[in-house]
Amino acid sequence: MRRYGKHTDEDDIRQRPNPKGNRPRTTIRPKHEDAAEGFVLTVDRGRLTCLVDGRTIHAMKARELGRKAAVVGDRVWIVGDLTGKKDTLARIVRIEERKSVLRRTADDDDPYERVVVANADQLAIVTALADPEPRPRMIDRCLVAAYDAGLEPLLVLTKSDLTSADKILEIYSTFGLNYVVTNREELAAGDAADRVRERLNGRITAFVGHSGVGKTTLVNSLVAEGRQRATGHVNAVTGRGRHTTTSALALPLPGGDGWVIDTPGVRSFGLHHVDPSRVILAFPDLVPGTEGCPRACSHDEQDCALDKWVEDGHADPARLYSLRRLLQTRERREGD
C-alpha cells in the first residue's frame, strides 16, 4: 500500500473505526412542538423553578441551548415531566425573545455583565431614609440602569418613621419621578402595601436596593401569606444590612394581577455595560440644559452649558456632581 506521493487513491486512505459503533451525531434538532410555555420563578445552581399551567415544576436547561441561560422573568418552553411531583425534572428547550433585560456589573471596571431579571416593566428602587443612610448616587446608578433597559423607575422610600423624606424628594420629585413613601407602622397595618400595590398592578416589577433597606420586608407585605421570605437586620457598628436574600424570586401579587421580583441586596451597581452617552438620560432635570452644550460635549468640560443651567437654579448642584462622578468613572475605565 502506497503511503506517500502525490498520486493516491481510496486504498491509501486509512479510516478509523467508530469506537462507539453508532452513527455520527446529526445537526437536526427536534422542534419540540409539544412543549409547554412556562415562566421562570427562580434559579438555584442550574436548577430552574418554573410556573406551568398553575403548577410549579423544576427544570434544567437543555444542552441544545448552548451557553444561553434562562433567568428570572424569562418566558420559556419546557418538555418532559410537567406534573410537578417530587424528584421530577423537566427540560427547557427554548427561551422566548426578551422584551427587556436589566443588567448590572459588579463595578464600573468589571466587564462581566450579570443579567438581573428579564421582561420586567418597572424597576422599584428601594431606599431607606435612615438605618442605613440613603445614598443618592446609588439611586442615580439604578436610574441609569432602568432607563438603559427601558424600564419605568419607581422610587420607594422606607423607614419614614425615623426621619423625613423631604430632602430626598426635593431632589427626585422635581422631574416627575414616581415615588412612594412608607414606614414600618403603615406596613404592619397594610396601608403602605396598598399604596405600593397600586403602582404594581398589571406589571412585572423588579425590586433592587442595598441590604437592610427593608426591600424584602416590603415585598413580604405585598404578597400572599405563605410566600414571605426571610429578612435580616442592619449591623449597628457598620450601618450595613446583612444579606438574607441570595437569589432573585418572582412572586405573584394577590389576585394574579402583576408580579414582584425580589432580588438580592447589592453593595454596588456597576454600569460597565451602559454607553456613556446614555447616562444623561437618567438625569431628566439636566437634559434641557444640554441644549447649549458644544457638539459632542462630554458634560464634564469647561464649556459645558450644564454649569450655567445649575447656576441659574434649574437643577440641584448635587445632581450635576453625581452625573460627572459617573462619567469620570467611565472615562477612567476606558483609559485603562
Automatic annotation (TrEMBL):
InterPro entries: G_CP_dom (IPR030378), P-loop_NTPase (IPR027417), Ribosome_biogen_GTPase_RsgA (IPR004881), RsgA_GTPase_dom (IPR010914). Keywords: Cytoplasm, GTP-binding, Hydrolase, Metal-binding, Nucleotide-binding, Ribosome biogenesis, RNA-binding, rRNA-binding, Zinc. One of its GO terms (molecular function) is GTPase activity. Its EC number is 3.6.1.-. Residues 1-15 have a biased composition (Basic and acidic residues). The keyword Nucleotide-binding applies. One of its GO terms (cellular component) is cytoplasm. Residues 1-33 are annotated as: Disordered. It is found in: Cytoplasm. GO terms for biological process: ribosomal small subunit biogenesis. Zn(2+) binds at C293, C297, H299, C304. Residues 118-267 form the EngC GTPase domain. SUPFAM superfamilies: P-loop containing nucleoside triphosphate hydrolases. Binds 1 zinc ion per subunit. Its cofactor is Zn(2+). The keyword Aminoacyl-tRNA synthetase does not apply. Residues 99-269 form the CP-type G domain. One of several proteins that assist in the late maturation steps of the functional core of the 30S ribosomal subunit. Helps release RbfA from mature subunits. May play a role in the assembly of ribosomal proteins into the subunit. Circularly permuted GTPase that catalyzes slow GTP hydrolysis, GTPase activity is stimulated by the 30S ribosomal subunit. Belongs to the TRAFAC class YlqF/YawG GTPase family. RsgA subfamily. Monomer. Associates with 30S ribosomal subunit, binds 16S rRNA. This is Small ribosomal subunit biogenesis GTPase RsgA. It comes from Streptomyces vinaceus. The gene is rsgA.
